[in-house]
Amino acid sequence: MAKSKDTSAYWRKLLRLDEELPKDFTKNLDSFWKVFRKPLHRAFERLGQRDYALTAVGLENLPGKPPFIIASNHASSMDFPAIFICLPEKYRREVVVMYTGFFDKLLPAKWAIKAFVSSFSVDLDGNFWEALAKSAKVLKCKKIIYIAPEGKRSYDGKLLPFKVGAGALAVEADVPVVPVYIKGTFETLPRGKFIPKKHPIRVVFGKPIYPDSFIEKKKNAAAYGIYKEFTEKLREEINRLSLI
Amino acid sequence: MENIEKEIKALVSKVVKIPEDKIDLDADLFKDLGVDSLLGVEIFAALDKKYHIDIPEQKLIRIKTLNDIIAIAEEQIK
After folding, report:
1. pLDDT in tens, B12-29
2. Which chain B residue has its CA at the smallest distance from A15's CA?
């Protein structure tokens, strides 16, 4: 019998997928500032309508129940808040986002993030698998994790290459990924700008990509190649949504 | 030990898709060979699969060259 080429055992170990969840894991995603969450969301909804004519297309494509991943292009710091505000309330409650550990030192920024959404901090400069492992835990808790597979904001509004971590997370945690294209945030608040300009923002939710066929293929292939294939499919889909 | 060197070089060459003769043992995997951090993990995953060389998470961040990988492999084989 041919020897399996599957290298995913090591990836699973790094993602700590087979470890038990710490009891207080979900509790630590929120803080006291959660009490301001609903009024803050209402304020963002009003702002979205008034200044950005915020519209969402394809919300019916969201899977009925978490866990799943929402993955979008990344052109601006406004991407996540705009996508989040487009989600129906039942999904908002389940969304978790990661933020750079730098904000843990800037307390008002940390409080604002914690008031807006369930979240955790990661050191994005070094230990990238720590970010993936924490994201895997969020999915194990049957939540929704938001990721930007480009890993950083685009310089010109065009899609950057995607990092393979998105594919590794989806395939190993066996969860679908909802591709999202967000249009207008680059014009609103690009890299290097700090005051947002009024400009229409449109969020397009695509059909989820399920990892089943990739999990099957992985049995006889090096894991990285399969994660890459999944990530490329996701990028193609987000690119296609940009034309809608 | 020379064998380990050869075998690991061959394995890395296969994973990163760079001919063996273009890989210097002291070359920086990330800066010189253009390996990104996730492809780096696949190198360690392949080592784990083929030789059961388990590189602990804490050491991953310190590995920069093929020689670093060979040193860990030799240490574990001993």
Report:
1. 999 999 999 989 999 899
2. B57
**Amino acid present at B59:** K
> By the 8 A CB rule, do A48 and A85 touch?
yes
- If we measure between CA atoms, which residue out of B57, B43, B54, B52 comes closest to residue B8? B43
Q: State the nearest Cα–Cα gap between A148 and chain B, in angstroms.
A: 16
| Residue B38 token pair | 């996730």
What is the torsional sign of CA A220, A225, A229, A231? Answer: positive
Q: Whole-angstrom Cα distance, residue A82 to residue B10? A: 47
C-alpha distance from A79 to closest chain B C-alpha (Å)? 25
DSSP tag of A124:
S
Q: How far apart are the first and last CA of chain B?
A: 10
pLDDT bucket at A70, cuts 50 / 70 / 90: very high
Using an 8 Å Cβ cutoff, are A141 and A25 in contact? yes
Q: Which residue has the higher pLDDT, A56 or B34?
A: A56
B-interface mutation test, from A10, A17, A220, most B Cβ less than 10 A away: A10
A5 → chain B, closest CA residue: B49
pTM here is 0.91
**What is the ipTM metric for this complex?**
0.81
**CB of A103 within 8 A of CB of A121?**
yes
Q: How many Cβ contacts (< 8 angstroms) between chains A and B? A: 48
Distance from the Cα of residue A223 to its chain's centroid: 21
pLDDT computed for residue A3 by the predictor: 62
* 8 Å CB contact of A14 and B57: yes
10 Å Cβ neighbour count for B51? 15
Q: Is residue B30 within 8 Å of residue B37, measured between CB atoms? A: yes
How many whole angstroms separate alpha carbon A130 and alpha carbon A100? 12
Q: Are A213 and A221 in contact (CB under 8 A)?
A: no
